[in-house]
Design brief:
The chain is built from 12 helices and 15 strands. By secondary structure, the protein is an alpha+beta fold. A hairpin with a 2-residue loop joins strand 2 and strand 3.
Length: 368
């Protein structure tokens, strides 16, 4: 069995066992964390940080978490809403006047967070993603593909710019700066949107699925999903220095399972973790107010969307291309995170769910 490093409560042995099984099955490296009441009951890692399996995964190894980044951007917006600085029912144009172009004056802030704004596709170049003014100006000029609020279509890249520009207009700071100052910094969380060069040596680059290479293209998990429109993101893009430096708040966050679970424990624990209060219980509850339920036009499958999070029964959270995941269980005050560097084909990737289910084994034992 693969060697697992870190620590865990004896009641949660199923979690490191699940990680070891994934590594034994061929995965390169990963970290897993389970937090209950804002404290780690599992903080483990194993495998390797590089495709050649020469660099062991360390305690402070970080990796790109792709769309799990959306939960960090959503949290930033929810904090502003809780402070009364952002009205989720206001038109986006109240904060970003140029956004009203092409009939978007009726798009509300909550539409951005719930993938119902009608702007799901990025049709610029990959290089333009690295230029914030260019990216946001391009989105402001678009017309919505459907009447905002009436349908959902996963805004895989665009959501981060849309929400992030609202955050910037309100605070005068980029969403990455706001997150660093108001969330990661106070919590001591090793999560970054816009990674500086000093951290490059800690990054576990993404490894393509077997038989794929660096041109592997991002795709939706469902075979019935809409054909990809606009510019596709390749694995080589996500592994580039330019991607790490940029703020792409829907997809370019870097961290490990510990940092992801710590941050999202704020949502699991009513807004306060380790004595740091980021928002109220009511502010947390907003996240899982259902905004849409039905077929997602882009993902090609039934979805329930809250404000910045996917809703799954009594839990909420989201996953990223490549397998990363965070799940929040508010009734148990639990957050579970899985951050791998080994990618699998989306339609055949249940690793995050397996890890979450192993955490429930521990939760059942804890409650016994």
């Amino acid at each position: 069995m693969a060697e697992i490093q870190g620590s865990y409560d004896d009641l949660f042995t199923a979690v490191p066992e699940a990680l070891a099984a994934l590594l034994d099955a061929g995965d390169v490296g990963a970290s897993v964390a389970v937090f209950v009441d804002g404290e780690p009951v599992v903080d483990v890692w194993g495998g390797f940080a590089d495709a050649d399996r020469t660099i062991p995964w360390q305690r402070d190894t970080i990796a790109g978490v792709w769309s799990v980044t959306k939960t960090m951007t959503a949290l930033s917006a929810l904090i502003l809403a809780d402070r009364g600085e952002l009205d989720l029912d206001a038109p986006v144009a109240r904060y970003w006047p140029e956004f009203a172009a092409e009939g978007k004056d009726g798009v509300l802030v909550r539409h951005l967070l719930s993938h119902t704004a009608g702007l799901p596709n990025w049709d610029g170049t990959v290089e333009e993603l690295y230029d914030w003014p260019s990216a946001t100006a391009r989105l402001a000029e678009l017309a919505p593909q459907w009447e905002p609020g009436t349908a959902a279509g996963y805004h895989s890249l665009t959501q981060g710019y849309l929400v992030g520009e609202v955050v910037r207009r309100i605070t005068g700071r980029s969403v990455g700066e706001f997150f660093a100052d108001e969330v990661a910094g106070p919590l001591g969380a090793d999560f970054h949107m816009g990674l500086s060069a000093e951290h490059d040596h800690r990054v576990a680059l993404a490894v393509p699925p077997p038989s794929r290479d660096a041109d592997y293209l991002a795709s939706a998990p469902s075979p019935t999903a809409a054909a990809a429109a606009g510019t596709g993101i390749r694995l080589r893009d996500g592994n580039s220095v330019a991607w790490r430096r940029a703020q792409i708040p829907a997809a370019s966050g870097f961290g490990n399972a510990r940092s992801v679970a710590l941050v999202q424990s704020v949502m699991a624990c009513g807004g306060t973790v380790r004595g740091v209060r980021l928002l109220s219980q009511a502010g947390c509850d907003r996240a899982w107010e259902e905004q849409f339920s039905g077929e997602d036009r882009i993902l090609g499958m039934p979805m329930r969307w809250g404000l910045g999070y996917g809703l799954f029964g009594g839990t909420y959270g989201w996953g990223g291309w490549g397998g990363s995941m965070v799940m929040i269980e508010p009734d148990a005050r639990m957050a579970v995170s899985y951050v791998p560097n080994q990618m699998r084909e989306p339609g055949n990737d249940n690793r995050g769910i397996e890890v979450v289910m192993s955490a429930y084994d521990g939760l059942t034992a804890l409650r016994a």
